[in-house]
Amino acid sequence: MSEQADVIVVGAGLAGLVATYELTRAGRKVLVVEQENAANLGAQAFWSLGGLFLVNSPEQRRLGIKDSLELAMQDWMGTAGFDREREDHWPRQWAKAYVEFAAGDKRQYLHDLGLRLMPNVGWAERGRGMALGHGNSVPRFHLTWGTGPGVVDVFLTKVIAAQKRGLVTFKHRHQVDQLVVTDGAVTGVRGTVLEPSSDLRGVKSSRTPIGEFEFAAQAVVVTSGGIGGNYELVKKNWPERLGKAPKHMLTGVPAHVDGRMLEITESAGGNIVNRDRMWHYTEGIQNWNPIWPNHGIRIIPGPSSMWFDATGKRLPVPNFPGFDTMGTFKYILDSGHEYTWFILDQKIIEKEFALSGSEQNPDFTNRDFKLLLERIKKGAPGPVEAFKQKGADFVVRNNLRDLVDGMNALTDEPLLDYEDIEREMIARDREVDNKYSKDFQVTAIHGARNLLADKIVRVVAPHKILDSKNGPLIAVRLHLLTRKTLGGLETNLDSQVIKADGSVFDGLYAAGEVAGFGGGGVHGYSALEGTFLGGCIFSGRAAGRALARDL
Ligand SMILES: Cc1cc2nc3c(=O)[nH]c(=O)nc-3n(C[C@H](O)[C@H](O)[C@H](O)COP(=O)(O)OP(=O)(O)OC[C@H]3O[C@@H](n4cnc5c(N)ncnc54)[C@H](O)[C@@H]3O)c2cc1C
Predict the structure, then answer these.
(1) Residue 547: which H helix or E strand, with range?
(2) Helix or strand holding residue 100 (H, E)
(3) 10 pairs with which residues across the strands?
(4) Is 444 left (phi over 0), alpha (psi -120 to 50) or beta?
(5) Neighbours of 81 (CB within 10 A)
(6) Which part of the chain is the FAD-dependent oxidoreductase 2 FAD-binding domain (predicted)?
(7) What residues pair up with 279 in beta bridges, in sequence order?
(8) pLDDT bucket at 2, cuts 50 / 70 / 90
(9) Which pLDDT belongs to residue 3?
(10) Cα 486-492-497 angle, rounded to 5 deg
(11) Strands 496-498 and 278-286
(12) Range scoring the smallest mean pLDDT among 258-272, 446-460, 462-476, 528-542
């Protein structure tokens, strides 16, 4: 195939691959322009855990979870908190359509492509404690068998097959710097050819130019991802409602998540909405084996670890591990310090610590049953144990006094008072003698264990953390970690980019994270988790199908 394509797709991440797949199904020719090398196909989705938000799935029903479209819609809208007239116009419609997709043909669409799910369903973002407020009322986080690479693979396989049929051409190391606009419509892209790179996936690559390029097509789909790898942009757009932007955050995404295409698209005439909405994490740890600069990993915690701020104050209700990411974020920034502490024991780490990232879950990622079985053996899963032993943020000791000394030694100022922590830990341990408690965190643990799946694989039975038979004691210093961009290019339900005057920008489409996963902010202010890969799939599919229909 020559460079004459029907459509140019900018970015070979999940959203770009899905749009390309849909276009090639309809026989359209696609030129995929990507700044990284071929090793990075699938981009962020490859690194992801592959968690998918589904509603009333067979997996949920098998576990006795009663979910429904109405309950999910209530949760989504309570979490999103849409409150802006113009900026939330399309996001509201995308949210409704997306929840219907998650309760409708999402699972079948992926199943038909060969994607398979784990039988267990995780309960992420358990919420703020009010039925109409933030959070998932029931578990909805479906883990893919094969994690992120499994999700990428089902689309990539089809795209490679289409490449063999002459329908797809990849232009790697081609960085788009400009959209070409002719008579008010987007007709192509211009940019810089970067020097070849043999870097491994995820490694920050050079930006040394070796040439220029220009390609033309009937339409361009921008699928370039968010801003999470560019902390200057994160700070520039920082939501003041969460407090002052942190001085430092770990980076939860590769360096190519640089946000450049947002500005490039805006200067061509595309409208950006909800730029102050983002989804970062409070449970980041420094990767002892980093791939990209300042690489942080997120702990996906079960509910039992005790959570303290930098000065040793227990985080207030409902800021328990895994309940309310944004509420906890605000509490932390208001505390005047940018890190917090988990205190737990060996029993908790073994069952309740999951690490987000495909490379941190080799059993699920490589579909390795033998390795998977090791999870039921005594001891933490291998990657968690490696962090416990080698991670710069872990302190492991046999008694609380030594633990607190170790925690103080890890920070610039020794802010923790042993007596304060001891009083809090002893008081909490007294609350686990009954099956009920006035301590809401203990009550939440009992509540979670009413769900068989949580009881078996995720939530440890309430027990005394200070009892040495459950030891050693473990403290983990938690950093703030960048990840997702919730705002972005405003798009209609066909993923067409909208201009500042509200009209459609002819020839220009956007999908995935750059479009706030659809509409410029399908999540509103907060997310229910597992909704991002699905957002790439839904919005990438919408772009591909609309173009296949209209070209
Ligand atoms: C560790 C980790 C765990 C995650 N876990 C989950 C999960 O369990 N569930 C979930 O739903 N989500 C998860 N996510 C989020 C999800 O993976 C991402 O939001 C999603 O994959 C984004 O896909 P995208 O196609 O929009 O953008 P990206 O994956 O960022 O791809 C964009 C591509 O565009 C290219 N590009 C950018 N600018 C240009 C340019 N100017 N010229 C040419 N090319 C360009 C980039 O190089 C990149 O290849 C996780 C993310 C990470 C990093």
Answers:
(1) helix 532-550
(2) helix 89-103
(3) 33, 222
(4) alpha
(5) 15
(6) 6-533
(7) 484
(8) very low
(9) 67
(10) 80
(11) unpaired
(12) 446-460
Peptide bond into 472 cis (omega under 30): yes
Measured by CA distance, the residue closest to atom 41 of ligand 1 is 176
Question: Shortest CA distance to 539 belongs to which of 114, 224, 179?
Answer: 224
Structure tokens at 441: 């965190």
Residue type, 166: G
For residue 1, is pLDDT > 50? Answer: no
Q: Which residue has a Cα nearest atom 31 of ligand 1?
A: 13
Between strands 306-309 and 394-397, the pairing is unpaired
Nearest one of 89, 124, 110 to 279, comparing CA atoms: 124
Q: What distance in Å separates the CA atoms of residue 320 and residue 279, rounded to the nearest whole number?
A: 17
Token pair of 78 as six digits: 């309570």
Place of tokens 């693979």: 153
Q: What is the average pLDDT across 10-30?
A: 98
Structure-token pair, residue 519: 């509409």
Contact 239, 276 (CB under 8 A): yes
Residues near ligand 1 (Cβ within 6 A): 10-16, 33-36, 40, 43-45, 47-51, 175-176, 223-225, 252-253, 256-257, 260-261, 356-357, 484, 512-513, 530-533, 536
What stretches of 153-293 adopt beta strand conformation (E)? 168-172, 174-182, 185-194, 209-216, 219-222, 250-251, 272-273, 278-286
Q: How confident is the model at residue 4 (pLDDT cuts 50, 70, 90)?
A: confident
Write down the CATH superfamily of domain 7-224+486-550: FAD/NAD(P)-binding domain (3.50.50.60)
Q: 438 in helix, strand or coil?
A: coil
Is residue 483 within 8 Å of 297, Cβ to Cβ?
no
Q: Which of 36, 35, 38, 15 is nearest to 163 (CA)?
A: 38
With a cut of 60, say whether residue 114 has pLDDT above it. yes
Mutate to test the pocket of ligand 1, among 10, 14, 44 (most ligand atoms within 8 A of CB): 44
| 3-class secondary-structure state, position 12 | coil
Taking Cα atoms as reference points, which of 15, 2, 136 lies closest to residue 73?
A: 136
Please report, rounded to a whole number, the percentage of residues in the chain having pLDDT higher than 70.
99
User: From ligand 1's centre to the CA of 514, what distance in Å?
Assistant: 9
- Report the range of poorest mean pLDDT among 1-5, 492-496, 503-507: 1-5
Confidence of residue 294 (pLDDT cuts 50, 70, 90): very high
pLDDT value of residue 352: 96
Asked if residue 26 lies in contact with residue 124, where contact means CB atoms within 8 angstroms, the answer is no
Separation of CA 358 and ligand 1 centre (Å): 13
The span from the CA of 336 to the CA of 415, in Å, is 12
Q: Please list the alpha-helical segments (H only) found in 335-480.
A: 346-352, 362-365, 369-373, 382-390, 400-410, 418-430, 440-448, 452-453
Q: What angle do CA 288, 52, 263 make, to 5 degrees?
A: 70
